[in-house]
């Protein structure tokens, strides 16, 4: 049976042995004659003590849980005021294997640079090392060592916690619930973590003692691999110093080959150290909360290496450690961005918009982690948040450059520009309240390459122009399929105008591009609108070609007329919409206006030509014998004219007034011009019948056009001519000439001769007298300035068929007088 020692006896033993630090250990061992000359035994003891203390902590925690769960009956000495030693703790002390610390090489007398001897053997109150017992007493370590003291302390601490949280029941309560104990543990851990995060890493530090004799290259490399950076770096510095001493001394023992080999090893180790540092930094923002102490060691390695860059004798390491750290930060940021999900365009039509949304979220989350965790893991001189922010600007800029090479659609160009200009610096990403106040002192803009944004805007404009052309082609295709092929009649709008939706489709396309681009940039809006208008300039001619090709087989003239009126209305409305962009794109609007006006005028002319071809046969039979005896031809003329004028009421202004005025002018001119062909001459007082008929027909035509035309100056011509033709007394015809010449100054003597011929006055003195008076009136009115008014030219556009009587009209009047008269 092992002898149980009371706590008071253990204190006396501790005082006698004097285990306060490493020096006391050494002196005690020398006095007992147990001093070990080499390091392995010490290494074994140190490793065993370290693991022993950790085991005691775990046992104490387990004892705490056990004490809470067992109650007072499991503690037999508690009633007497004493503490018992847990048998489980005692058994564990015998089962602990001796461990070798990786901090010391075999045969090295120097302690690990991570911990000074005092730190290794520093003990709590009542704590004693197992190494102070003589070797013969090691098998009774649970009797002569201090686990009872540790257990006693932990049990007291557990009892205090239980009393404070009222978790201890009375003696009758055999069991206690485990949940309250777990919650207490969680709260303690969280408070401890919050306390650790609040500690700021200071700029200055004290470098631990560099070992005089370094570990082997393989051991240092293994420390680097296992991320024991502080110990690895101290041994690396020791190896470096050793190399420098040997190189400076140039002893015979250190041959050049050995120095070269050691220099190579040193270079390899430094490279491995730097790569490990970069690896840790790269992963620090992507892995779950990385050990803050590990990042602190990274910072100290960088700081120490920066101090030693200027050491005499040359730099054996890689140099520029701070630059390597920034490079690792940048690489970590790039890796973070690459992990954001990105679909292919063929997989998802909204691939880019979705990716950019996730990208912004990832940026904010990672910068929040930098602010919350990583920033406090480095000294202030590292400017961690600023460095990460700068790296994000650069990495995102490069990522966007890669993305834009995959963009082909207008919506994706828009998504990219909108994200860069409107979203990246907004509160959704870089301006997020969660990044303040650190973000307030930082640059929030991207580090885009020069000209990248202008290039992207240019591609956006080109894509908008290409889409505009494709949209116009689609409009033509739909119009052909839905209207022309089916020979479907056009619809009317709410104002009863013939209507097609093509102008709305075009305007909506341009307007949407303008509105979207304005959200990005006002200048971009102007460029996009100008691009769309440039493409739209070619559309009127393309439309006309397609219309005539597809409607060539339309046999119904009324349907063809409706089509032409419909598209006159549509392009007129389109031009009204486009006039809103004249201020921003004056040149493009002017060119488009000329093209649209040309198309509308050609459609109007085509409609007019169709009417002319339709009524020409009936007009040719005016002022003939058949005309005098029947109204059939005039009725056909009137019916077709009336039908077209009513159809034109479905044409939008201003072209409806223009067209109806041209139609009015044509009907009047062609009706009157039949008198100039000298096809018929009224005889035997038939001129009265002709004049009456002309007056009736003229009134009908005048009533038809009176409210539609702007050429109201044409109305009197029929009355003037019918008065001349119907005048019974030939001598009184001269009285009707003044009003005719005044209203229509372009009438000539040939025109009047033709009217007189139709009247039946082909020769004689009366005819010559009438013509003489006409000449005098022309001369008189010519001084009044009424000749040459092109706006009222009617007769000048009429050709007159020359007859023999017209040739006699050129002979002077006195030649017709008799000698005795």
Automatic annotation (TrEMBL):
Q: Which GO terms describe its molecular function?
A: SNARE binding
Q: Where is the composition biased (Basic and acidic residues)?
A: 40-61
Any one GO CC term of this protein is: exocyst
Q: List all Acidic residues biased stretches.
A: 1-14
Please give the family membership noted in the entry. Belongs to the SEC6 family.
Question: This protein's superkingdom?
Answer: Eukaryota
Single Gene Ontology BP annotation: exocyst localization
Locate the region Disordered: 1-156
Question: How is this protein named in the record?
Answer: Exocyst complex component Sec6
Polar residues bias locations: 90-106
- One Pfam entry name: Sec6
Listed PANTHER family:
EXOCYST COMPLEX COMPONENT 3-LIKE 2 (PTHR21292:SF7), EXOCYST COMPLEX COMPONENT SEC6-RELATED (PTHR21292)
InterPro entries in UniProt: EXOC3/Sec6 (IPR010326), EXOC3/Sec6_C (IPR042532)
